[in-house]
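Pasting as-is:
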Amino acid sequence: MIILVLNCGSSSLKYALYEWTKNVVLTQGMMELSSEGLNQHREPLQKIIHSLASYQIAAVGHRVVHGGSVFKQSVIIQGDVLDHLKKLSEIAPLHNPPNILGIESAMELLPHVPQVAIFDTAFHHTLPEISFTYPIPYEWHEKYQVRRYGFHGTSHLYVSRRAARFLGLPTNQTNLIILHIGSGVSICAVREGISVDTSMGFTPLEGAMMGNRSGDIDPAIVSFMSDRLGFDAQQITSVLNTKSGHLGVTGQYSDRRDVVNAARSGDRRAQLSLDMEVYRLKKYIGAYLAVLGRVDAIVFTAGVGENSAIIRSNTLHGLEPFGIVLDEERNDMTQSSSGETLLSTPESAIKLLMIPTHEEVVLVEDVVALLEGYYQAHTQYVYQFEK
């Protein structure tokens, strides 16, 4: 069974083709997207599908960032699913619209192939009420579904499973703090294998400092700056999403490699920005230590978490009184190509791990799980694209 997995963003389209029965990746890649036009996904996707013409594609799995309160698990895209996804675009304006464009393009190009939506928010639907409820008028939650949803769920799910296996523990007995640090950043507290708290909230803007997103700020800043700049709330939110974080503090850099290099060259604002990020990560670790009580491991993942030794080191520095002791030599030699790696010293009470994330694995597993019921109702379930 061959599954095509798509991750359609605003500036790139990532894809991977999996042979499920053999558990192998047949091909994968990424295409940059033009910033012009609303149909920018169709042409690149058409090129990808043409290149895969020799394969019989059984289904397409789409990463969708926000599932809101409607979608608590992956779904076959049919009926009014797309309409619900479009309604959610107002609370995930950077992510859901390109996700939807990718879905619509794939449905047009592969009309007889089942399409599946896999949601970043699904893993976090286990959050307890005290964690997902905001201290705002309760009617806002009841009427408008304003609550913490959390994101990067497929990554946190995959990494939590791999960490439990690495530690030799049953998943349902494993407590973890997972730091997904990439362009976007989210921290997750995992108790007995399920998410009980996470840093991102109603949208992916809340939480840790990110490449170009602010993370946590005083909400009164929005109205304060709106009055002074003559911006409406949407414009201020756009600034917080696209011109803040490292880019806002440094005035130049959103890529951590650039921030680190500039800091090493004596750029004061780059050094400030780097120090701000690790300070905030450290605070989240402390908070989740308190939430979980017992922690088996702290896990770093995603592009920065897997490859930036200095950010891992600076984040963990000073946490030795909590039983967190980093092996600096091993940390300096570790990057994503090293595979799953133990970073802590033997005397560290809490294990420190680097685990490369493979979100696509979760997407494929969910697609396959949903297909059995779909096939019972559809006899023509594969489609070979004809050139």
